């Protein structure tokens, strides 16, 4: 098996060939107005971080827009209420580098950003992000290093924006998963029954 593993950059680049000119041209080190318009329409993103416990990717979503654009080099991302694991934030304490992938339902392309984040708890800043009187715990102040759009092939292959084609009957519920992992230490049915209302009541 080892003889079939690629372990050096030259072999990897030879496997894929040259980068298309447009794939290079689409990358910028700032938020070009075209990318700004894209981000202003995004309500959901995946946030990637890395730290002592390893790499983490977690979702971020809001009523829109998800982030606030300060200038062509700076984004603000509020940390809304969640499960308090704070895996991403723990990582950022150790390593400020982040990656973001923004998705817009119905749009095949995604937008990728690489940068560095600081955890900001300025009271005035938190208040400016309040929803229904509830402030985020903190705000990620993101310095943008690289921005580019990703082609639509993965979205097209997965048919992601065609929900009618996805059979979810075999997907276990959160309660089912908790019950299985704890040898029925959790009442899965009760958890699932209460979850929708709990999520609505604690959205922000």
Automatic annotation (TrEMBL):
Gene3D superfamilies: Electron Transport, Fmn-binding Protein, Chain A (2.30.110.10)
Domain Pyridoxamine 5'-phosphate oxidase N-terminal: 32-151
NCBIfam families reported in the protein's UniProt record: PPOX_FMN_DR2398
Stated name of the protein: Pyridoxamine 5'-phosphate oxidase family protein
Lineage, top ranks: Bacteria, Pseudomonadati, Pseudomonadota, Betaproteobacteria, Burkholderiales
């Amino acid at each position: 098996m080892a003889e079939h593993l690629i372990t050096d950059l030259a072999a990897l680049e030879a496997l894929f060939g040259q980068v298309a000119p447009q794939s290079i041209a689409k990358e910028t080190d700032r938020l070009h107005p075209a990318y700004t318009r894209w981000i202003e329409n995004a309500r959901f993103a995946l946030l990637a971080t890395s730290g002592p416990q390893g790499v983490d990717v977690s979702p971020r979503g809001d009523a829109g827009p998800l982030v606030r654009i300060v200038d062509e080099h700076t984004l603000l991302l509020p940390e809304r209420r969640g499960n308090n694991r704070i895996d991403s934030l723990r990582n950022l304490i150790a390593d400020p580098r982040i990656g973001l992938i923004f998705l817009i339902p119905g749009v095949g392309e995604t937008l990728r950003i690489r940068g560095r984040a600081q955890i900001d708890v300025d009271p005035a800043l938190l208040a400016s992000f309040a929803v229904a009187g509830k402030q985020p715990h903190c705000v990620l102040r993101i310095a943008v290093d690289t921005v580019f759009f990703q082609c639509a092939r993965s979205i097209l292959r997965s048919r992601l924006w065609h929900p009618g084609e996805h059979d979810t009957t075999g997907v276990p519920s959160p309660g089912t998963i908790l019950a299985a992992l704890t040898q029925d230490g959790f009442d899965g049915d009760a958890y699932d029954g209460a979850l929708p209302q709990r999520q609505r009541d604690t959205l922000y």
